[in-house]
Amino acid sequence: LDQDFLPTCTTPLLVLMGDDLYHPQSSSRLVAEMAPDVKFIESWKSGEAMQQAQRAFAEFLASADPAA
């Protein structure tokens, strides 16, 4: 993870928090804290949290600039 890049990233990011060896919570939180335009979702894997994450994902995509 290139921490020097994160503050300069101008692309909007949607970060769903990881919780395994390859996608640890610490990396998810770091990206959410350091990148300037982040929507961070901590809980998203089941139940109501999954439904809320699906809505957030749809809203994130809908807000994307089609000219980009």
Structural write-up:
- The protein is of the alpha+beta class and 68 residues long.
- It has helices spanning 25-34, 47-62; strands at 13-16, 38-41.
- It contains 2 helices and 2 strands, in the order E-H-E-H.
- Strands 1-2 form a two-stranded parallel sheet.
- The two termini are 24 Å apart.
- The dominant shape is flat
Radius of gyration: 13 Å
Strand % is 5-15%
What's the total count of β strands? Answer: 2
Q: Averaging pLDDT over every residue, what do you get?
A: 92
Uncertain residue ranges: none
What summary fits the major beta sheet? 2 strands, parallel
- Helical percent range? 25-40%
Secondary-structure element pattern, one letter each: EHEH
From the N-terminal CA to the C-terminal CA, the straight-line distance is: 24 Å
Strand order of the largest sheet: 1-2
Topology readout:
Elements: E1 13-16, H1 25-34, E2 38-41, H2 47-62
Please give a handful of descriptors for the protein shown.
38% helix, alpha+beta, two-stranded parallel ribbon, 68 residues, 2 helices, flat
Summarize the structure.
The protein is an alpha+beta fold. It has 2 helices and 2 strands.
